[in-house]
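From the shared-data thread, chain only:
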Amino acid sequence: MPHWMTIAFLAALAMHLFVQLWLSHRQTRHVAAHRHDVPPAFADAVSAAEHSKAADYTVARQRFGRLELVYDAIMLLVLTLGGGIAALGRVANAIAGLNPIGSGTLHVLLVLLAMSLATLPFSVWRTFVLEARFGFNRTTAAVFVADLVKAAALGTLLGGGIVALVLWTMQASGMRWWLVAWAVWMAISLLLLWAWPRWIAGFFNKFTPLTDAALRERIDALLARCDFHARDVYVMDGSKRSAHGNAYFTGLGREKRIVFYDTLLQSLSPVQVEAVLAHELAHFKLKHIPQRLLVSAATSLAGFALLGWLSAQDWFYAALGVDQPSSSAALLLFILVLPAFTWILTPLGAAWSRRHEFQADAFAARFSDGPELGRALVSLYRENASTLTPDPWHSAFYDSHPPPVVRISRLVNPGGAQGSLATVQAFSST
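Structure, as tokens:
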């Protein structure tokens, strides 16, 4: 008779896979059904051909994503109940000997390497076939390989060091090791968030100071109005890999940086760039970042506490395919198996994120130009081939940003839940 944990894991995994496939099917069917129906709100801003391209792109990504979902579920079963984690643990012990920290770190790195190699064909297909088919890929084979090598080196050095520190904490801190490990994890996370823009991001992309004097003057005026201080404004060579555009803030404290993709600067006017920046800035000014950090701290504390209890239970290992308990096996099982049980919380996180996006839009409309933000969003939807007609269930479950029609409507009519289609249509065409 299988252990109850084995049954619970299989049932949770099956339910998660079923819901994911069902939602993906809904998204595909809904988007395909509206392929030729440009929403009236966007009729003068998005052509029928552009709308059809967005629908085809969405459908292609969903279909490819369903293959990945099934493949990932199979890989998870191979690593757990199939004995993959246990087998790689024996390999690590054979290489590193009886040193628990060394063998444990190698164990984790070997599993992560196996997972990366197993999913590499999907990454290649997505980049060089799917993205290229719709005109978005600009990644060369040389850049792709270089990224893989850099990521592997960074993962081995930085990731390996973090894993070794966590494993050492698990063994050296007594019964309450999980509390110490959580404190160490939070300290490392904050350190990486601070160090990423200055010391790490440059390994993958080139960041150059913004040289457009007029745009920089406009940005400085916005920062002054909002009483916000950033170290500098940078342009990232996003076009080196993709035609998609974006902008973001990164860093903590005095290391905060504003980053624009060069592709975004090419597609938006200066006033629209300012409006997009005001939206991103709002996430800091409205305390969204600290809120997310606090939630992350609370959930990770609960996670470490649960791991602390599970790691002491022999049935936890045996029920999930590991015959030799170890700190590294506990860490791997927990990280890989937990999502099968926590996926049900995804809609809550998505709804919270959408609430933040609405608040950031309102902030941008107050300190910049709301109509221009709307026009910028319309342009980004068009340039990125984002569907304007997502399935409501799929959107509610996954989307961190509001549906396009609802979002643009609120920018047009801040006092109401949704502006009239005629008003939005007039707005988007001006």
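The chain has 18 helices and four strands.
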